[in-house]
Prior knowledge:
CATH architecture of the largest domain: 2-Layer Sandwich
Number of strands: 7
CATH superfamily of the largest domain: Protein of unknown function (DUF541), domain 2
Radius of gyration: 31 Å
CATH class of the largest domain: Alpha Beta
Largest sheet: 4 strands, antiparallel
Number of domains: 2
Order of helices and strands: HHEEHEEHEHEE
Structural class: alpha+beta
Amino acid sequence: xxxxxxxxxxxxxxxxxxxxxxxxxxxxxxxxxxxxxxxxxxxxxxxxxxxxxxxxxxxxxxxxxxxxxxxxxxxxxxxxxxxxxxxxxxxxxxxxxxxxxxxxxxxxxxxxxxxxxxxxxxxxxxxxxxxxxxxxxxxxxxxxxxxxxxxxxxxxxxxxxxxxxxxxxxxxxxxxxxxxxxxxxxxxxxxxxxxxxxxxxxxxxxxxxxxxxxxxxxxxxxxxxxxxxxxxxxxxxxxx
Length: 240
């Protein structure tokens, strides 16, 4: 027991001693040494993919009637998509629901069911940007008054090359800032000791083209431009 107690006291003494505290403090302080900068790289690209969120919404007195009407309309919409060049692999169901529709009966002072609403929404990825407007028109015609299009999104099919370019610009920006700080401080800049990055893609601005009243009613869609940006945080060592 005496030996055990002595061992415990020795360990406690070592944990609380000055040299031990100095080592731990040194580890944390080393992480803050050097010149810390952030660099930003931006690349402007033209989107080549448009994704539509579209579908059908039907309301009837019974579930069976609403579902039948919605199914028939959705079949026409899906056919319109595939016949206009949208691949089946690029069509994905996003939402399907059957909901009661109610209203407040003032005489009975209670909610009463007046029908049922069936909603079926999909996303359709259009890879030919020039066909986006005509596909929207075909879908609207196929679904009629039951058609719902509630979102349009633009993206880049293969963004890896653009992120690589943005990364080059971000690292060059960080290096330039660090070199300027080193010159101002009168020190020699060393190699990077820490690097982290974060990416961001800003949604493009959709520009609807102006159409004269007598022009054909084809929905004009313009993808605009899209900004892909990347930020790096870099710590450079200081050579002594």
